[in-house]
Specification:
The complex is a heterodimer. Chain A is an alpha/beta fold. Chain A has helices at residues 7-13, 18-31, 38-48, 64-70, 77-83, 98-111, 127-130, 140-149, 159-163, 165-168, 179-182, 198-211, 224-227, 238-242, 253-256, 275-278, 320-352, and strands spanning 53-58, 86-90, 116-121, 124-125, 134-135, 138-139, 151-157, 176-177, 188-191. Chain A has three domains: 7-227, NADH:ubiquinone oxidoreductase-like, 20kDa subunit (Rossmann fold), CATH 3.40.50.700; 231-304, Irregular (Cytochrome-c3 Hydrogenase, Chain A, domain 2); 320-354. Chain A has a five-stranded parallel sheet with strand order 2-1-3-7-9, sandwiched between helices. In chain A, strands 4-8 form a two-stranded antiparallel sheet. In chain A, helix 2 packs across helix 3. By secondary structure, chain B is an all-alpha fold. Chain B contains ten helices and no strands. Chain B has helices at residues 3-8, 10-31, 47-57, 66-89, 91-101, 110-133, 135-140, 143-164, 170-187, 195-212. The A-B interface holds A 230, 232-233, 241-244, 246, 262-263, 269-270, 300-301, 304-306, 310-317, 319, 322-323, 325-327, 329-331, 333-335, 337-339, 341-342, 345-346 and B 1-2, 4-5, 8-10, 12-14, 16-18, 20-34, 91-93, 95-96, 99-100, 107-111, 165, 170-171, 174. Bound molecules: iron/sulfur cluster (2 copies). One iron/sulfur cluster (SF4) is lined by residues 231-232, 235, 237-238, 241, 260-262, 266, 268-269, 288, 293-294 of chain A.
């Protein structure tokens, strides 16, 4: 398979039928909420496109995003998507190591300068001049800045790359920041989630390949087509929320009846993601369907918003001592005021009765 | 940190601190005031009963004034009861109360809450209209009255907008709703809203005084 083959040619060489390709295009169109007629446009554009080079950089991450993404390497529709790209550098998956791996990155960058897609997962530590994460003697900040210069588009995969995620959680010892704080001169597409839904990642890539542009983004840089609604907006347990029927523990009658998980800390009402519609594991289920509330993993600072099991309407502060001090201070001033008033009264009484 | 994090975090902590500070200040300050000894021989006993009787009796219109006070009273009842149902019957509110006090109970269906909130808001608006149009009430009203109205109505309005997802993103509306309630908490001890706690004290005192003199108001 040559790099110069069009996607359709390369698929044919792999024994993937035109029919399977069309099915993939139809699924992509529906995933992107496009009218069914757009499937033909996607097929035509993708069919003609040259396999784009993808450079995938990983920094402060747990490889969960990679795990999610590689699920698309099993024979699924997403599999097609990844076979049609030239993944030129991805430490987790590539066979090459050390100098050879770095050389592959440099070659890919040189050959595709200005055209490759740069995908990043993990946050970037900026503390101590980037010393917390170095690869081949270069800091993550430097590699990212250099690689972004020649990229056609930058895609942050996962909440760590998109918003800093867990490495950025308080007290953030490494000064971890999201990609968008390092790369300022290029649009960065944030595909948040811990990890993101694999179809969302492939859907965004398909959109870029088909239309040559980035999809419409929300105020946090996430594609609106996937992050336009909250989990709560699309949750199948919503009728129970509206009826005031809540599970109070994970094994009570409410939980068994599939009632709303708000009291158990579900963050669905403030979490924008596609879990409730696209679902996980090829549309099998999603966390709430499995009986656990949403953690809000696709939102900034989800790790620092109090306990996952604390209801959204409660406070996230801790400070019983502040309240105790307020009671004591209030009572002390009240007693003081009463004493002053009593003294004045006594003085007035003395004057009245000489 | 976004607006919602602020509302659920630092803003909630400090507004609660100001609230309890103010409540304790005002209550200890008032309850410890000097009370002149009443050396008269009581005509009747049962000061406590008298206090309770007056607290309840004065919440009901006297026949002589009924026609003149009916509107104001009906409207006041409507928004006081409405507020109580919304504040203590809505599950997210109960969860907040439980997280602060450890006390919890079952909530009401959302439909009932939304209905009560709308009735409350209408009653609040009617009360405001009466205040600005009534020739005497208008003269008696000052900044405290209007500001107390604003901080009471704001959480109802923002709460309704939040559940309707109307006007902004849900998390922004929720943050504004929580913040508006926090403004109410801060204002409560220092403005006329404090009547919520002082009214029984003041009426009870009067009732006890009358009871001692054998007057049954
Ligand atoms: S389970 Fe969560 S997302 Fe679903 S209705 Fe309840 S609060 Fe909303
Ligand atoms: S349901 Fe919520 S926490 Fe779970 S994966 Fe989806 S967005 Fe993340």
């Amino acid at each position: 398979m040559s790099k110069d083959d069009s996607i359709e040619v390369s698929l044919r060489k792999q024994g993937i039928s035109r029919r399977a390709f069309m099915k993939f295009c139809a699924a992509t169109a529906s995933l992107l909420a496009l009218p069914p007629a757009m499937a033909a446009v996607i097929a035509e554009t993708l069919g003609r496109a040259r396999r784009p080079s993808v450079i995938y950089l990983s920094y402060q991450e747990c490889t969960g995003c990679g795990e999610s993404l590689t699920r698309s390497f099993s024979p699924t529709l997403e599999n097609l998507m990844f076979n049609v790209m030239s993944l030129d550098y991805y430490e987790t998956l590539q066979a090459a190591a050390g100098t050879a791996a770095e050389a592959a990155r440099h070659t890919a960058m040189k050959e595709n300068w200005g055209k490759y897609l740069l995908v990043v997962d993990g946050a970037i530590p900026r503390g101590h001049d980037g010393a917390y994460c170095t690869i081949a003697g270069e800091s993550a900040v430097d590699i990212l800045t250099g690689a972004a210069k020649g990229a056609a588009a930058v895609i942050s995969v996962g909440t760590c790359a998109a918003f800093g995620g867990i490495p950025h959680a308080s007290p953030d010892p490494t000064g971890a920041v999201p990609v968008s704080q390092v790369i300022k001169d290029k649009p960065v597409i944030n595909i948040s989630g811990c990890p993101p839904v694999p179809e969302v990642i492939t859907g965004v890539l398909a959109h870029y390949l088909t239309f040559g542009s980035i999809p419409e983004l929300d105020h946090l840089g996430r594609p609106k087509v996937f992050y336009g609604d909250t989990i709560h907006d699309r949750c199948y347990r919503r009728p129970y929320y509206d009826a005031g029927k809540f599970a109070k523990t994970f094994d009570d009658e409410g939980a068994r009846n599939g009632w709303c998980l708000f009291e158990l800390g579900c963050k669905g009402p403030i979490t924008y993601n596609a879990c409730a519609t696209v679902k996980w594991n090829q549309g099998t289920s999603y966390p709430i369907q499995s009986g656990h509330g949403c953690l809000g993993c696709s939102e900034p600072d989800f790790w620092d918003k109090g306990s996952f099991y604390q209801a959204l309407s409660t406070g996230t502060w801790s400070g019983g001592t502040v309240l105790g001090a307020a009671v004591v201070a209030g009572a002390a001033i009240g007693v003081g005021a009463a004493v002053v008033s009593r003294r004045r009264q006594a003085r007035a009484d003395r004057k009245k009765q000489p | 940190m976004n607006l919602l994090d602020f509302a659920r975090g630092a803003a909630m902590k400090w507004s609660l601190a100001v609230f309890v500070f103010g409540i304790f200040w005002r209550l200890t300050g008032i309850l410890l005031l000097h009370r002149t000894h009443d050396y008269s021989v009581p005509r009747a006993h049962g000061a406590l009963l008298g206090a309770l009787r007056t607290i309840i009796a004065r919440s009901w219109p006297r026949r002589e004034f009924r026609a003149r006070t009916a509107y104001g009273l009906a409207v006041s009842y409507a928004f006081h009861i409405g507020l109580a149902i919304v504040v203590f019957g809505f599950v997210p509110h109960i969860l907040l109360i439980r997280s602060l006090t450890g006390l919890g109970w079952n909530g009401l269906p959302d439909g009932v809450i939304y209905f009560c909130a709308v009735v409350t808001l209408i009653a609040l608006i009617m009360a405001l209209i009466r205040r600005v149009t009534h020739p005497v009430l208008k003269l008696l009203s000052n900044f405290d009255d209007y500001f107390s109205w604003v901080v009471t109505a704001a959480p109802v309005v923002t709460g309704l907008l939040t559940v309707a997802h109307y006007g902004a993103r849900y998390e922004t509306l929720l943050a504004l709703h929580i913040l508006s309630f926090e403004v109410l908490l801060v204002w409560f001890p220092f403005g006329k809203l404090m009547h919520g706690l002082l009214l029984p004290v003041a009426r009870g005192q009067t009732g006890a005084f009358y009871a001692r003199r054998g007057v049954n108001p």
